């Protein structure tokens, strides 16, 4: 019965099931890597710290841009008398 051809829906379901199985295996490998016992890699910790700093810098840039936009918006609304 396994040699029987599947219809369109059967093939799609099989493809999705295979994708889910592959995804689960990747996620498990990644989870095992980050949950490893013992001392963490100094290089991995340094890379994580660098990524954190880059993320904070990007948040600062976005925050500054948003504040400038709000100030410009308030000035424009005041000039046009839309308050």
TrEMBL record:
<keyword id="KW-1133">Transmembrane helix</keyword>
<protein>
    <submittedName>
        <fullName>Uncharacterized protein</fullName>
    </submittedName>
</protein>
<keyword id="KW-0812">Transmembrane</keyword>
<feature type="transmembrane region" description="Helical">
    <location>
        <begin position="62"/>
        <end position="80"/>
    </location>
</feature>
<keyword id="KW-0472">Membrane</keyword>
